[in-house]
Model the fold of this input.
Amino acid sequence: MSLMEENLNVEVEIHDRVTAVVTIGGELDADTATLLHHHLANQFLHGRRNLVLDLSALEFMDSSGLNVLIKATRETRSTGGDLHLAAPTPAVAKLFDLTGLSLTTSVHRDVGTALAAVEPAG
Done:
Protein backbone atom coordinates (compact mmCIF):
# COMPACT_ATOMS: atom_id res chain seq x y z
CA MET A 1 0.00 0.00 0.00
CA SER A 2 1.46 3.34 -0.98
CA LEU A 3 1.58 6.38 1.29
CA MET A 4 -1.07 7.92 -0.91
CA GLU A 5 -3.46 5.07 -0.11
CA GLU A 6 -2.66 5.07 3.60
CA ASN A 7 -4.35 8.47 4.05
CA LEU A 8 -7.60 7.58 2.29
CA ASN A 9 -9.88 4.60 2.72
CA VAL A 10 -12.50 3.93 0.03
CA GLU A 11 -15.03 1.10 0.27
CA VAL A 12 -17.73 0.42 -2.31
CA GLU A 13 -21.01 -1.37 -1.65
CA ILE A 14 -23.30 -2.08 -4.58
CA HIS A 15 -26.85 -1.13 -3.61
CA ASP A 16 -28.54 -2.10 -6.89
CA ARG A 17 -27.53 -2.37 -10.54
CA VAL A 18 -27.33 1.43 -10.98
CA THR A 19 -26.52 2.61 -7.45
CA ALA A 20 -23.40 2.30 -5.31
CA VAL A 21 -22.61 3.53 -1.82
CA VAL A 22 -19.01 4.72 -1.60
CA THR A 23 -17.67 5.15 1.93
CA ILE A 24 -14.75 7.56 2.13
CA GLY A 25 -12.56 7.92 5.20
CA GLY A 26 -9.37 9.73 6.08
CA GLU A 27 -8.03 12.68 4.12
CA LEU A 28 -9.15 13.70 0.64
CA ASP A 29 -6.52 16.05 -0.73
CA ALA A 30 -4.07 16.51 -3.62
CA ASP A 31 -2.27 13.30 -2.66
CA THR A 32 -5.39 11.11 -2.55
CA ALA A 33 -7.92 12.70 -4.93
CA THR A 34 -6.75 10.59 -7.88
CA LEU A 35 -7.40 7.41 -5.90
CA LEU A 36 -11.01 8.45 -5.24
CA HIS A 37 -11.42 9.52 -8.87
CA HIS A 38 -10.36 6.03 -10.01
CA HIS A 39 -12.84 4.35 -7.64
CA LEU A 40 -15.70 6.54 -8.88
CA ALA A 41 -14.73 6.10 -12.54
CA ASN A 42 -14.83 2.34 -12.01
CA GLN A 43 -18.43 2.65 -10.80
CA PHE A 44 -19.39 4.61 -13.92
CA LEU A 45 -17.67 1.98 -16.06
CA HIS A 46 -19.86 -0.69 -14.46
CA GLY A 47 -23.08 1.19 -15.15
CA ARG A 48 -23.67 2.81 -11.79
CA ARG A 49 -25.22 6.22 -12.48
CA ASN A 50 -26.26 6.99 -8.89
CA LEU A 51 -23.60 7.39 -6.26
CA VAL A 52 -24.12 7.92 -2.55
CA LEU A 53 -20.91 9.07 -0.88
CA ASP A 54 -20.79 8.27 2.84
CA LEU A 55 -18.54 10.99 4.26
CA SER A 56 -19.01 10.20 7.96
CA ALA A 57 -15.36 9.13 8.34
CA LEU A 58 -13.83 11.83 6.12
CA GLU A 59 -11.65 13.94 8.41
CA PHE A 60 -10.30 16.45 5.88
CA MET A 61 -10.99 17.63 2.34
CA ASP A 62 -9.32 20.31 0.26
CA SER A 63 -10.03 21.79 -3.18
CA SER A 64 -8.65 18.70 -4.93
CA GLY A 65 -11.30 16.60 -3.23
CA LEU A 66 -13.99 19.13 -4.07
CA ASN A 67 -12.92 18.96 -7.70
CA VAL A 68 -13.38 15.17 -7.74
CA LEU A 69 -16.88 15.55 -6.28
CA ILE A 70 -17.83 18.23 -8.82
CA LYS A 71 -16.61 16.05 -11.70
CA ALA A 72 -18.49 13.05 -10.29
CA THR A 73 -21.66 15.12 -10.02
CA ARG A 74 -21.34 16.12 -13.68
CA GLU A 75 -20.69 12.53 -14.71
CA THR A 76 -23.66 11.09 -12.82
CA ARG A 77 -26.01 13.74 -14.15
CA SER A 78 -24.82 13.24 -17.73
CA THR A 79 -25.95 9.60 -17.46
CA GLY A 80 -29.35 10.42 -15.97
CA GLY A 81 -28.34 9.78 -12.38
CA ASP A 82 -27.11 11.90 -9.50
CA LEU A 83 -24.54 12.19 -6.74
CA HIS A 84 -25.71 12.31 -3.12
CA LEU A 85 -23.45 13.29 -0.24
CA ALA A 86 -24.26 11.67 3.10
CA ALA A 87 -23.26 12.38 6.70
CA PRO A 88 -20.43 14.87 6.16
CA THR A 89 -18.38 15.67 9.22
CA PRO A 90 -18.82 19.25 10.50
CA ALA A 91 -15.58 20.45 8.88
CA VAL A 92 -16.48 18.93 5.51
CA ALA A 93 -20.07 20.25 5.71
CA LYS A 94 -18.69 23.73 6.40
CA LEU A 95 -16.49 23.44 3.30
CA PHE A 96 -19.56 22.49 1.23
CA ASP A 97 -21.40 25.55 2.56
CA LEU A 98 -18.48 27.93 2.02
CA THR A 99 -17.92 26.80 -1.56
CA GLY A 100 -21.59 26.52 -2.50
CA LEU A 101 -21.38 22.80 -3.23
CA SER A 102 -24.28 22.24 -0.82
CA LEU A 103 -26.43 24.41 -3.11
CA THR A 104 -25.78 22.31 -6.22
CA THR A 105 -25.39 18.81 -4.80
CA SER A 106 -27.74 16.98 -2.43
CA VAL A 107 -26.37 16.67 1.11
CA HIS A 108 -28.16 14.26 3.46
CA ARG A 109 -27.86 13.59 7.19
CA ASP A 110 -27.18 9.87 6.67
CA VAL A 111 -26.82 7.15 4.04
CA GLY A 112 -30.38 5.88 4.49
CA THR A 113 -31.84 9.29 3.74
CA ALA A 114 -29.57 9.65 0.72
CA LEU A 115 -30.58 6.23 -0.63
CA ALA A 116 -34.26 7.12 -0.17
CA ALA A 117 -33.68 10.21 -2.34
CA VAL A 118 -32.13 8.22 -5.19
CA GLU A 119 -34.44 7.66 -8.13
CA PRO A 120 -35.53 4.00 -8.24
CA ALA A 121 -33.63 1.78 -10.65
CA GLY A 122 -35.61 1.33 -13.71
About this structure: Residues 63-78 form the longest helix (16 residues). The first strand starts at residue 8 and ends at 16.
